[in-house]
Each structure stands twice: as structure tokens, then as C-alpha cells.
Amino acid sequence: MKNDFRFEKKWVFTKIDKETLFSNLINSKLYFREQYSERTVNSIYFDTLNLKSAFDNLDGVSNREKYRVRWYGKNTEIFDNPILENKIKKNFQGYKIFFKLNNFDKKKLDNENLFELTKLVNKFSVNKNLYPITMTNYRRNYLISANNDIRATLDFNLQYKKLNNYIENFFVKSEDIILEFKYLTNIDSYLREQISGITRISRNSKYVNSLMSNIYQL
User: Fold this and answer.
1) pLDDT tens string 186-195
2) Helix (H, G, I), strand (E, B) or coil at 211
3) d(C-alpha 115, C-alpha 118), whole Å
4) Class of domain 6-212
């Protein structure tokens, strides 16, 4: 399954609480409202041993892609309806290709299952040389504008875990809050006109952030 090309733009906040940011979105000119209930997101990121995907992101490579396995729920040790996502980016535009991993549903995240999962991911990958590098876990709020054209997500309580070579038994926490807007490419100018008070667009990747935390040293 594949979704449409869309813009994805992110801001990273370190000195604002989530409730204030949430309120600013609700009271903005776009009158955001909650679209879905808040939930926990878990992702395992796959990359080459020389971290090509991570360095492509840091270097600002226009055309890049990354593979991750995602599931939802507070249990970080059991896969719950996991989905493999191939996320393809071209500048600020991107789309995803999804593959359901029914054979891994309700399985434990251990070294044996991670090894089998890696083999399956590489069957879908052109590179055929991917490894599980890190895992992220965070809470997410989902919002949508009053005209239903712009979706926003707020990610908070972020934490990262090392998976390369072995599964680390603890998470490293981050204080960052990440705001992301997702919308079709033809309304980019409209969004810029409507959003005020946020002036700096930054490249942000939870995968890269996990590598730059103290679980890895780039």
C-alpha cells in the first residue's frame, strides 16, 4: 500500500511544554482540533552498518529513504500489528509504502525474532544490507485543521534504545517536543500564510536523534 506525495515539515521545541503548544494549535488561525486519541508509537529503524540513511539526512540529501517497523501501544517488548514502512523523501515532499507483518504480530522483541525480522526487511529493501539500529518510543497527539486540509502531530515523552549488535535493556529519554504538519503539496503557500509564531523549519528525524543521543556517537 502507498500513500500520496505530501509535504512534511517539522519544528523541534525544547523550552515549551506540550500543553502550551497544543493550546496554540487549537487557537491558531487554522483552528486545529483533536482528530484521534493520543497513543504510544514504537519504531525500529533499519540502516546500513555505515549509517547511510542517517548521514543522508544530516547531509541534506534531497532524495533519500529509510525503513522502519512501527507498532502502537505501551508495550515496547511485544509487536502489536507491526507494519514495515519504506519512507521516501524528496526535499520536503514524501510518501510511504506500507507492508503488513502479520507473521510477527504478538511476537516478543528478542534477538531471535529481531534476526528474522531483519531478514524479512531486507527482502523488501533494494539495498539488501540493512540492520536494526535503534528503537524509538513516544506519545503522539493527532490534530487536524478546521478545513480538514492540514494534519498536525505532537510527539513528546521521546525515548531511544540501542539495537545494533544487541538489544539495549534501557531507554535514553529526550525532552524534545516535535511538531509536524502533513498536507498536500498544492497548499504549501496557504499554510505559510496561516501559521504565525513558528519561524524556523528544521530537518528532524527521530532516527537521527536517537543516534545523536548518548546511545551512539556519530
Assistant:
1) 888 888 787 7
2) helix
3) 5
4) alpha beta
Residues whose CB is less than 8 angstroms from the CB of residue 192 and which lie 6 or more positions away in sequence, other chains included: none
The residue behind cell 531471535 is 112
Best CA proximity match to 214, nearest among 176, 173, 175, 177: 173
Q: What is residue 79's three-state secondary structure?
A: coil
Query: Which residues are registered as beta bridge partners of 11?
Result: 179
What is the model's pTM? 0.87
Q: Quick one: average pLDDT of 2-29? A: 84
List the alpha helices (DSSP H) in 30-105: 52-58
3-state helix, strand, coil in the chain (%, to 5): 25, 40, 35
Question: Rounded distance, CA 84 to CA 102, Å?
Answer: 10
* Model confidence at 200: pLDDT above 60: no
Q: How far apart are CA 162 and CA 129, in angstroms?
A: 18
The torsion angles phi and psi of 206, rounded to 5 degrees, stand at -65, -30
